[in-house]
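User: Hey, quick favor. My workstation is busy. Could you predict this chain's structure for me?
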Amino acid sequence: MTINSNTQSVLKTTPRIKVLGLGGAGCNTVQRLSALRISGVELIAANTDRQCLDANPAQNKILLGAALTRGLGSGGNPRTGQAAAEQSYRELIAAIRDCDLLFLTAGMGGGTGSGAIQIAARIAQSLDVTSMSFVTLPFTFEAGRRAQNAREAVAGLQPYTDTLVTIPNDRLISLAGADAPLHEAFSLADDILLKGIQGVTEMLGVPGLLDIDCSHVLRLIKKGGGTYISLGTAQGDNRAIQAIENALSHPLLEDIQIQQAKGLIVKFSGSLSLNEMENAMRYLRSRSAPETEIIPALGAQEQPEGQVTVTLLAAGIGATPLEYIPAPLQVPAMPEKTQPELALEALPMDFAPHSFDLGGKDVDDLEVPAFIRRGYNQLEHAPVRNG
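Assistant: No problem, here it is.
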């Protein structure tokens, strides 16, 4: 193996990564992520509740369906959340376009997140933007309407996102403890998303001795099935192999079955010998299928003395290890033509997006997703308000 050390001659473009949180839970995740000040990642909060949105520290915000909900929320109705997102498709397009990788996050079971995340995913798909969705499922004690909302929302979202990771809130109780504050428990769920974001930025954002380009990573994510991205660190004997094992472990997820992966990218960072790297790659090959595409990378950034960090991306994994949808939640997707039973009002033509600049373009100048052009929403049939 020949390692190219002439990194100065390679011009590396930083990928454009965005995180879009929808609804109360999604916006709370964005708020917690904003406190971490992740470099090179744009955070966007979208909600139907103006008061909660105004309190969010995210730089970019979208008030969904202002003409429909008047900023008062969706009332726990996913159809209202869906209709609100459809009304605000111009702002969602402006937020999602010019993006290489979009992370979507929401809590399933309520109104805005459950209804709006599918619309955001479908817009991303229509713009050919790679998306990864991280959603939480209701606690067991939240039976009835919220459970039904959650399973319908998950089934409706899955066809439109490249990766779907679902996290049951019940696992947060078992890990954080029944007496743990809620914000600490939900931080555990955020950690899966955070590690995915950090993994991508680590893999693509910092030039190394042996690099991976952004288009290669996005190609693997689009292979189908699930995608797992994480980081692991280790010191001491067999540190490179142990770092791989640590990257494959997360308390909220079962062991990742990398033998199912269609493609693996593993990036090592630290003062690593060629022999250590070769042994780690042999180990990874022994854990994966013969036909699995494995791509190594070597970072140049310094690590604490004796430490090795591994950034791992496993693509094309079967859905079971990543998507924890309890058996009662497995239902067929809702029919695509289902219409919200609402009297929708069209947005006034002078309605301004909450944060995003549409560049002075009329809606006709923006790419309108096909499912909206076909009349999936009812805006074209709704009365236009005067004034």
